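Revision sheet: structure tokens.
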Amino acid sequence: MDTMRPIDPDHVALAERLAADGVQYAVGGWIDITGRSKSKVVPIAHLPNLLAGSERYTPRGMGDLGRMTPTEDECVAVPDVDTLIVCPWDRRFAWMAADLSFGGREPFALCTRSILKGQLAAAADAGFEFNLGVETELFVFKPESLDRTDGYLEPLARTGSLRPTQAYDIEAAMDAMPFLHPMAAAMEETGFGLFSFDTEGGDAQYEFDFDYAPALEMADRLTFFRLMVKEVAKQAGLIATFMPKPYTNAWGSGHHFNMSLVDVETGQNMFRDAEDRRGKGWSKGAYSFVAGIIRHARAIAAVATPTVNSYKRLTPRLTDGSVSWAPVFAAYGDNNRSCMLRLPRNRPAIENRGVDSAANTYIAAALMLAAGLEGMNEGLDPGDPVEDLTYDWVADGANRTGPVRLPRTLQEAVEAFAADPLVTEVFPAEFVNAYIDMKQGEWDDYHREVSEWERTKYLLAF
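Predicted:
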């Protein structure tokens, strides 16, 4: 079978070492629009061929992004050997992240990993490296939950449904250790730098916190993390989901971005400055980065909160009247968790709380980086930080003169994405058109569906 490039003898030796350790198969996972890893499975002896670009795909339409005709050329997956990980839950498999090359000639326009690499290269040309830490949340529940008519996801143990919340409860965490322990062990083995995990606010909801990394490494890490979570959950007899808001009374699952820039030559963090005129220790560049993201926040929502379901999370309050802890305004605050952006006191990174667990980390990071750099290039100023509880603005009407409201629906986000000129600078035209078509279709499918809420509200009322 032909390869894109000659087989590397070092890769032959690598395959032999892996085989001696019991590895039997390798995958070079390119990433679809939902963040899922896709690959053919090859015998470990074929690893050198895989790394040389032997495997071809017809990837359009997988994850609903784009359509392909039978006459088009295929894509070649080109794995990054530096990302190779032996899967702790099944050591027969070695996983790698891969880029898609159209016909083996150029980056495929719909390859989300290649899009991020392009934006990182632009940042490097400007003298910056983009680091990213991500706080990602998920639900892990009993399979029998799928048969419930109320949508409730049953936790592993009853302590996972403490009222008003199981958040940070030690007993609930201990009771969930059949899942949490093998996850923690797998993350330690694979170099995540895990420093904590906990039970989150929702029933059967959990969060893992681990070291930040250069943005491409972090995006690859999260792709593997999603695969690992699902497989480890299955081995514990459970199911995992990254759906942002799995049922009405649930808390939402965030995927908070913690972003920082460092000088490529000196390694110095560019977001700290002891001479901050606001007295908070942040640099002018950090404030401008914030302003750039705020300027493009409504377009960013289309990739940061990318599903119909995402906007059930971006509401001021939960059904019980308590605050949602998810942002509804494109505002920033020093330590104000009701804002989209937060300048935390314990780390030199800008936190974006307006990203949810359905986001494809590659494209969300690419657009946010571009927006932040635009803000720095133009010297934008975001104004003074917001100290109010922004959820109250919705009730008292202050949003008429305050910061811009984030999109309320996927439809609004898609329209903002289509209208923002920065989008066409970051993404290839083919990607932009395919993404808009896909998300508009997703909204249209949802909007034409008659829900049980509508039947209850209107059937006998008219």
